[in-house]
Amino acid sequence: MSYFLRKKWMVNLSGAGKILWALNMKKDSYPYLICMTVLGLIFIFLFFWWRADIYRVTFLNQSISHYYILFSMGIAFLLSLFWVKKGIVKQSGWKSLSAYLKVYAGMCIFAGFFLIIPLTTLTYFLPGETSSYVAPYRYTSGSSKSCSGAEVDDPDLHENIRICYPYGNYEYDNIIYVEKKINTLGAVVTYAQTARDDTE
Predict the structure, then answer these.
(1) Cα separation of 188 and 172, whole Å?
(2) Which of 67-71, 80-84, 169-173 has the lowest mean pLDDT?
(3) Where are the domains of the chain?
(4) For 153-181, what is each residue's pLDDT tens digit?
(5) What span, in angstroms and rounded, lies between the C-alpha atoms of 8 and 130?
(6) Residues 6+ apart with CB under 8 A from 98
(7) pLDDT averaged over the chain?
(8) How far apart are the C-alpha atoms of 197 and 177, rounded to whole Å?
(9) Closest to 189 (Cα-Cα) out of 52, 58, 11, 50
(10) Which of 19, 69, 170, 171 could form a disulfide with 194 if both were Cys (CB 3.0 to 4.6 A apart)?
């Protein structure tokens, strides 16, 4: 009886080994690598599309921005505790506190980055009311990390926003006409054009 049980156990192990071997072979196969490459390229394309077409024209209102910051800090706190329990922070005393703060700061950046994408995308696609205004603006030059455009005080968001590449000669004009969509999460700039007001 024990012989047959041992024989059956060895057969089961052999079957499990074949399954694991097949999975490993699948990950090393050309179809798997091609699939991962295509998915990676799609992710990169979607990220740059989001950054150019959604993030630049979408602005969160102040209350949502506060909740976003608090939620990011909360998630970062939980993630940093998880990494500490995993043994990332091994020093003792003040060095341990310094290492934990570094981990927490990194988790804040990580959580904030991955939360802002769905939040701004949701704000962008949510329906809302259309409004417009005309206001003076200040030209700001771009850099490798930001766009050039017009900085204007938005009357609904109650903060200074940067509108990237508005129509018109925005480097030398002094007023801007802005159309936007407003919903419960924030505002989406749908059109902006600068002009010159010589009476100012």
Answers:
(1) 25
(2) 80-84
(3) 2-46, 58-125, 129-195
(4) 999 999 999 999 999 999 998 899 999 99
(5) 71
(6) 91
(7) 84
(8) 12
(9) 58
(10) 170
Question: With contact defined as beta carbons under 8 Å apart, do 150 and 194 qualify?
Answer: yes
- The Cα-based distances of 30 to 25, 27, 42, 194 in angstroms read 10, 8, 18, 53
d(CA 122, CA 185): 8
The residue type found at 167 is: Y
Residue with tokens 């205004």: 133
Q: Residue 57 is which amino acid?
A: V
Tokens for 76? 């970062």
Cα–Cα distance, 79 to 96 (Å, whole number): 16
Query: Would you say residue 117 has pLDDT above 90?
Result: yes
Tell me which residue of 140, 199, 190, 200 sits closest to 170, measured CA to CA: 140
The CA distance from 180 to 95, in Å, is 49
Which residues neighbour 162 within 8 Å (Cβ) at sequence distance 6 or greater? 140, 146, 147, 149, 150, 151
Distance, in Å, from the CA atom of 76 to the CA atom of 128, rounded to the nearest integer, reads 32
For residues 92-108, average pLDDT: 77
Give the pair of three-digit tokens for residue 177.
């006409």
Q: Are 66 and 168 in contact (CB under 8 A)?
A: no
CA–CA gap between residue 149 and residue 169 (Å, rounded): 10
